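Entry 0007
Protein: SCP2 domain-containing protein
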Amino acid sequence: MSDIIVPGFKSSELIAELNKSFESFTPEEKAKLLKQVNGIFQFTIKNKNGKEEIFIVDCKKEGKVSRGKGSIKPNAILILKDEDFVALATGKLVGQKAYMTGKLKIKGQIMLAMKLDNVFKTIQLPSAKL
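Output (structure tokens):
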């Protein structure tokens, strides 16, 4: 089991899948994604029990995912509930709608957050598992 997966956080399973995808990319594929997105995202996710987890998705320098704040300064901080992250990552919730309805809060570069679709589309999410 990955150190990214956290019991009680469905989103952590998807974030772990994202990390697996990054690891399986060829250097060329990874370089293309990093050039296309060019940003570091911090996801602050709250589950149904009120617990909070932080995940960093680096799409700027290394193309990897980590759990916890770490030393990398994010360009965009996205704050949302666990179930809303799952809906967003699987395409069941549109980012703009989530933001406009208050399900998604963004600090930092809001325009960068719009590139998240590119990140989620590059991976094969196990949506059937959810």
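Curator remark: Helices lie at 10-24, 27-37, 82-89, 95-100, 110-113, 116-121. The two ends are 17 Å apart (CA to CA).
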